[in-house]
Write a structure and sequence with these properties.
Layout (H helix, E strand, L loop, with lengths): L2 E4 L9 E7 L6 E2 L4 E6 L4 E5 L4 E6 L6 E3 L3 E6 L6 H4 L5 H7 L2 H8 L23 H10 L17 H18 L3 H5 L15 H16 L2 E9 L1 H13 L10 H13 L7 E3 L4 E3 L5 E3 L1 E3 L2 E3 L2 E2 L7 H17 L12 E5 L18 E14 L5 E14 L5 H16 L1 H6 L1
Parallel strand pairs: 12-16, 16-17
Antiparallel strand pairs: 1-8, 2-4, 2-7, 3-6, 4-5, 6-8, 9-18, 10-11, 12-15, 13-14, 17-18
Helix pairs in contact: 4-5, 9-10, 9-11
């Protein structure tokens, strides 16, 4: 009996996923446990594994297609079985592939018939044009009408790659109308001198999020340092006997995150979201951790971090960090943070300007340790390890003074870390 394989829902917030590659083709033998295809959300990538054995009878979507969650993606069964019941809503691969070459012909006709782009719009009987959210977002960002794109998605739906094709055709049309002689005079750049790298979905999300953050917020960064002697001493003690006591490999970053979570409890105006007409202050600290991964910057969340012991925080932080780096983290763990910590200290950065992850109103940057000199009560000079902290706040929601007071309290807790643990 034929069995349909659906697009899984990876997290409650995910409505669709993009197929990145197929491991099986129509006619291939499939065994239970074989990888069928790979797909990704905006932040994570996954492999879909076969739950039944048989033959790949139909593939309903192609690589690059955006597929709604719970939609049929392919069909597995016995050779020769009827799959029409499963393919009714699916995208037929052959017509989509054959339709692609027609796009250049439409582009060539435009100089003679200016209204030609209207023909490319995909409409149903009610005259509505269907396009995926990604396609609409890309078109809006580029300043073009997505209805001018040639649809290759399921049931005449315009998808992201169709808008990309529309953008690629645009410059060609302009070049045909412009005089060619002046351009020929400029020295040509050999294609061997550069490489065009298409933006990944993760990079597109990062670009939009960071741009929106700076464009829509009023960001102010406050910088300070603290004497890291206490936290270094505590860290050394953990390394010496932590394993014997059954403790996790607690890092300096864990210590910084723990202190930040405990300090934020008394500064609810920084542990908040700015929601245009209101500010949502959180009772507990849901700590976002900026993680550098091979796919780009991801920010997994440790929920209720203020309720955890240092050891518990270290374990949970390491778990979500590893999941993010491996690229298989649930999208539900990549949202919901009320405050974020980002650490560039390992790169020797002494201070920087962290960019807020909206709708959060603050982000703490952790910097490296440098040796500095300070005067003692008797006037003598001593060397001490100074660690930098950079706090960026959204001035629409938080003023500079509350941000400075938070840094003061955080510095005090870090310089007296044993007392903080005793609270």
């Amino acid at each position: 009996m034929a069995t349909a394989v659906i697009m899984p829902r990876q997290g409650q917030s995910v409505e669709s996923c993009i197929i990145t590659s197929w491991a099986k083709q129509v006619g291939d033998e499939v065994k239970e446990g074989d990888i069928l295809f790979s797909y990704e959300t905006d932040k994570s990538s996954f492999d879909e594994v076969a739950q039944v054995s048989g033959t790949m009878l139909a593939i309903l979507y192609q690589e690059g297609d955006e597929v709604p969650c719970l939609e049929n993606v392919c069909v597995i069964g016995n050779a020769g079985e009827d799959v029409s019941a499963f393919t009714a809503k699916g995208a037929a691969p052959a017509p989509a592939a054959e339709a692609a070459p027609e796009a250049p012909a439409a582009a060539e006709a435009k100089p003679e018939t200016p209204a030609a782009p209207v023909v490319t719009a995909a409409a149903n009987t009610d005259g509505k044009v269907f396009a995926s959210p990604r396609a609409k977002a890309l078109a809006a960002q580029a300043g073009v009408d997505y209805k001018d794109a040639s649809p290759t998605g399921p049931e005449g739906r315009i998808i992201e790659r169709d808008v990309e094709a529309l953008l690629d055709r645009g410059p060609v049309e302009k070049a045909a109308a412009a005089p060619a002689a002046p351009k020929a005079a400029a020295p040509a750049v050999s294609e061997a001198d550069y490489e065009d790298i298409k933006l990944s979905n993760v990079r597109k999300v990062i670009a939009k999020s960071m741009h929106d953050s700076l464009a829509n917020g009023a960001q102010l960064t406050l910088n300070t340092t603290f004497d890291a002697t206490a936290v270094q001493k505590y860290r050394a003690g953990i390394k010496a006997c932590g394993e014997a006591m059954g403790l996790a490999n607690i890092t300096l970053n864990d210590i910084l995150m723990f202190a930040a979570a405990k300090t934020l409890v008394d500064f609810k105006d920084l542990n908040a979201h700015f929601l245009d007409d209101k500010i949502r202050q959180f009772r507990n600290v849901h700590l976002g951790i900026a993680v550098d991964t091979s796919r780009g910057l991801l920010v997994p969340t440790v929920f209720n971090a203020d309720k955890l012991s240092l050891n518990q925080l270290s374990i949970e932080a390491r778990e979500v960090i590893n999941e993010a780096k491996e690229g298989h983290i649930s999208p539900d763990k990549l949202q919901g943070a009320s405050f974020t910590v980002t650490n560039l200290g390992s790169f020797g950065i002494e201070h920087f300007t962290p960019v807020i992850n909206p709708p959060q109103v603050a982000i703490l940057g952790v910097c490296g340790i440098t040796n500095r000199v300070k005067a003692g009560k008797d006037g003598s000079l001593t060397m001490y390890p100074a660690m930098g902290l950079s706090l960026t706040i959204d001035h629409r929601a938080v003023d500079g003074a509350p941000g400075a007071r938070f840094l003061q309290a955080l510095v005090k807790n870090l310089e007296n870390f044993d007392q903080l643990l005793a609270k």
